[in-house]
Design goal:
Elements (H helix, E strand, L loop, with lengths): L6 E4 L6 H12 L2 E4 H9 L3 H24 L5 E4 L8 H10 L1 E6 L2 H8 L14 H19 L2 E4 L5 H12 L2
Parallel strand pairs: 1-3, 1-4, 2-3, 4-5
Helix pairs in contact: 1-7, 2-3, 5-6
Bound molecules: (3R,4S,5R)-3,4,5-trihydroxycyclohex-1-ENE-1-carboxylic acid.
């Protein structure tokens, strides 16, 4: 049987990776996974708890392991955690095991989409979410670009439209 391809979505918090990923998986009849959700499933705790108990370092170790395991599957769409690309190991795994799509968005959209989200401990500090997101973008946007096979803007479009755009670009 022909090998089934994988699609890995990267991009910052609030880019719509999970919603668009689900649409895309539905459309292409692939299985959908979300690395944050998988960490929560395996630990039985939410992301904020993992950060509280194990710090960001502990969280990143778990994230690396989860992405290692999930990228071994075939025929999946994976929404990756927004910070996962800071790991060299993760970037190598994603590049080697599937097509990487960078979902690009604006800081305004990120601010709007991440309000009241309990999965974003990095934004639950005394610093303004906008300024945290801006700093993360400076560090991480070059890494998303480096690992991406395809870059797609999410902006104001619905998840369905973005999923269609991805399919067109990939000729899947
Ligand atoms: O993985 C979660 C977690 O809140 C950390 C994060 C980040 O570093 O941008 C993004 C989320 O998907």
């Amino acid at each position: 049987m022909a090998e089934k391809r994988n699609i890995f979505l990267v991009g910052p918090m609030g880019a719509g990776k999970s919603t668009i990923g689900r649409e895309l998986a539905d459309k292409l009849h692939l299985d959908f996974y979300d690395s944050d959700q998988e960490i929560e499933r395996r630990t039985g705790a939410d992301i904020s708890w993992v950060f509280d108990l194990e710090g960001e370092e502990g969280f990143r170790k778990r994230e690396e392991q989860v992405i290692d395991d999930l990228t071994e599957l075939q025929g999946i769409v994976l929404a990756t955690g927004g910070g996962s690309v800071i790991s060299n190991h993760v970037r190598n795994r994603l590049s080697a095991r599937g097509i990487v799509v960078y979902l690009e968005t604006t800081i305004d959209k990120q601010v709007a989409r991440t309000q009241r989200d309990r999965r974003r401990p990095l934004l639950q500090t005394s610093e303004e979410p906008r300024s945290v997101l801006e700093k993360l973008a400076v560090e991480r946007n070059p890494l998303y670009e480096e690992v991406a096979d395809v870059i797609v803007q999410t902006d104001d479009q619905s998840a369905k439209i973005v999923a269609n755009k991805i399919v067109e670009r990939l000729e899947f």
